[in-house]
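Listing S7. Sequence submitted for prediction.
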Amino acid sequence: MKKKFDLKKMFNLKKLKLKFKGIRFKEKLLYFTPTRYKQIIKKQIKYAGLKPEFINRFLTFSILFSTAFALIFAFDLWIFGFESIALPLGFISGLTVFAIIQVSVVLIADSRALQVENILPDALQLMAANIRAGMTVDKAIWLSARPEFGIFEEEIRKAGAKSVAGKPLNIALMEMAETIKSDILNKTIKLIIEGIEAGGELAQLLEETANNIRVKEVLRKEIKSSVTAYSIFILFATIIGAPALFSISLFFVQTMAKLWAPEVLGGVQIRGEFSGGGFLSKASGPQITPDQLFWFAIACLGVMGFFGSLTIGLIQSGKEKNGLKFIPLLMAGSIIMFLLFHNVVSALFGSFFLL
């Protein structure tokens, strides 16, 4: 008897084969990823509140998406006639997209840490009040979880659940500190564990720690307000000063190139008439073209926006990476202001120089 073909089973087998090939491709792709990089990004993903199992999908997506973006961008440049620089610019764009994806995870982790640090004093005060009310330490920590604490509420409940399940309280607290990228939280938890082991007055310790954190936060805000003038100066130099100077320089080069053109002054005949000597016989037009100066200005403004953003982050928070979020704003703002200033200068003074 002839066997009948089961289409449903056949399609299921095809799906299983495709899925199997996809898994093998993912494993090969992750095999060539540096181990050190995978360890770093795994830690950042954990700090960002995502599951550690998400790392493989995240790495695969970031690599494939940045590669696809680079190829599409290079192909578009090649279509529009930029054959010579299509591949380099495509490669740079792919690296930029890949870096943006990685930096986004770091910024999310830092944002979570900042939220926890802001509400940590209130949580410590509530824990101290619970301990003074006669509760045990683990119960006082468990009942200190409040919806207004946001991210920290979830982490406290996880630590409390682990403690109730039989895990030692100090280990549960240290695991909570490992999920949040905060030095203040890490030191506070170590201090709580030492206080529990020493058997001291834990409620007073928590209250003093909360007060110290509040004092530190007040000092940080005072320092930030005192250095605001430096940030304003960097913003002015990046968005106003440099674009204005580059626009004037570009207008000057365009004017000189126009005035020295043979069809305007008859430059060839003038040089012949004054060949016997004189400054006009040695004078010449600009050695750079307006297009060269234009792209040089764009590159300089981009570099200034990048390092200006890092400097602002360093001044405001003491960490350069906190200025990464200002990079698109400063780079785009400086280039837009440069184009705007150039149009204004050309409109105001262009008629005087036949431009």
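Caption to Listing S7: primary sequence and predicted structure tokens for the chain studied. Confidence is low (pLDDT under 50) at residues 1-11, 13-22, 267-281. The two ends are 91 Å apart (CA to CA).
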